[in-house]
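Hi U.,

Before I forget, here's the chain from the pilot set. I'm dumping it here mostly so it's searchable later in email.
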Amino acid sequence: MSKNPLLLLLLGAAIASPALAQKAGAPVKKLYCWNENGQRVCSDALPADAVNRARVEISAKSGMRTAEVARAMSEEERAQAASDEQQRQVDQAAADTRRRTEQAMLMSYQSEDDLRRVFNERTSIVDNSIRTARYNVTSLREGLVSLLQTAGDRELDGKPVAPAMADNIRSRHRELLRQRQLQASFERQRAELDVEITDITRRYRELKGVETAPPAADAGTAMAEARTK
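Structure:
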């Protein structure tokens, strides 16, 4: 028998290699846990009827969770998910287009005053609508109060309220409610327009590289001028 230590070392490595390879290639044992009929079921083998269920995979050696698999979606759910993703892409493309269009539009204004003139037209229209609605609400309310007082006086005098007067009261009341709704809608639009103007002006200044806030001295001067007016 050879006494060469190098030969003995190589021979030992050759003998050990298949065993190590077999051990390294052996599958890692794990447990599968899923819910079935309201009960939690765990097994070291995954049955065919549980393949599409949501499950947790646990290492049999360490007892630690190694993976969490969601349940397989149905054909309807996959179709809905694909439709949702397509809609998301369409919405994103539309948002990108609006952003680029808005930037191009903003850059077309030579100054902030030009931009504000456009908004002044919109604010004037909304403000006029608010004033008209408020006037109508006040007028209708006063007329309705007068009619109700007249109807109340007739009832106190034991006289019936004429059908035409009753119809007029109901009609004025409906119109009053409608005008109040219009007034609230116009006032909401005005508040939203203020927010829009602030946001658009800020972005315009960013695109033009203009400072978003005046220097302290300018701000103080502006306040002083405002007090003198």
